[in-house]
Design brief:
The structure holds 2 protein chains of 2 kinds. Chain A is an alpha/beta fold. Chain A is about 50% helix and about 20% strand. Chain A has a single domain, classed as Transcription Regulator spoIIAA. In chain B, about 40% of the residues lie in helices and about 35% in strands. The chains are: A alpha/beta, B alpha+beta. At the A-B interface, helix 2 and helix 3 of A face helix 1, helix 2 and helix 4 of B.
């Protein structure tokens, strides 16, 4: 099941579904890299609220998505990591190091809004 | 639902296996983060099958020991086998398309973890977790 990507102003929002396969995740990486350029997006939010398992592959791919977005000039924020999922990731021995995270969609938008404003200020 | 067999040959099967494993664990009485730990461990061993052996199966069942109830997860394949199990169980060791955290990670998520492998014959991983 492909991940729906919404465009809201300068931000892309991808809402990951529970039954996401490896292929869906890799496809999301490709689509985001493409859409960031097409829509000239400054930020990307990956909402994993519905995701009940984040194993080593999912964690590594999310890091890859964040790094790819950064290279395309957009900041990525992962939002909605569930408490049990956070515990499992740590016990697996993994981290989302280098990836911005926020509690939920609202906090993620706020984080992007603040960092985008900072960029505007520097430019101006 | 006592024993379940999930054939694993493509990435969607990983999702099926971990979802069924979570359901079985909930029936045994596991709750909260334990359900996620079990589902994540199943995800890791199922992916290991696809990465290294192309296809295999996951057997999900109930386990009993000393009055404890638990779940058992057996992942078996008839792939190439693991030449050096000790190395495969080290964090960061990988010969395939992974970080090499799959098997050692799965071991940390479960209570018991055994691995048997024979070159040219295949690999069997047996994991159990007890409901406390």
């Amino acid at each position: 099941m492909p991940v729906p990507i919404l465009k809201q102003g300068e931000i892309l929002i991808a809402s990951v579904q529970a039954a996401m396969t490896d292929r869906d995740l890799l496809q999301l990486k490709d689509e985001l890299a493409d859409k960031i350029g097409r829509f000239r997006s400054r930020g990307v939010i990956i909402d994993v609220t519905a995701l009940d398992v984040m194993d080593s592959f999912a964690t590594r791919t999310l890091r890859g998505i964040a790094a790819t977005a950064r290279l395309r000039g957009a900041q990525a924020v992962v939002v909605g990591v569930q408490p049990d999922v956070a515990i499992a990731i740590v016990q697996l021995g993994l981290t989302l190091q280098g990836v911005a995270t926020a509690l939920d969609l609202e906090e993620g938008l706020e984080l992007l809004r603040r960092s985008t404003m900072k960029v505007d200020h520097c430019d101006g | 639902m006592d024993e379940l067999r999930v054939a694993v040959s493509r990435d969607a099967d990983i999702v099926t296996a971990r979802q069924l494993g979570r359901e079985l664990a909930a029936q045994v009485g596991f709750a909260g983060s334990d359900l996620t730990l079990i589902a994540t461990a199943i995800s890791e061993v199922a992916r290991n099958i696809i990465s290294y052996a192309d296809n295999g199966e996951i057997l999900l069942g109930l386990a009993h020991k000393d009055g404890l109830q638990g779940v058992s997860v057996i992942a078996q394949d008839d792939g190439p086998g693991i030449p050096d199990i000790d190395r495969a169980m080290q964090d960061g060791f990988s010969t395939g398309r992974s970080l090499g955290l799959g098997l050692p990670g799965a071991r940390r998520l479960m209570d018991e973890f055994e691995i048997e492998s024979e070159l040219g014959k295949g690999t069997t991983v047996t994991m159990r977790k007890w409901c406390r």
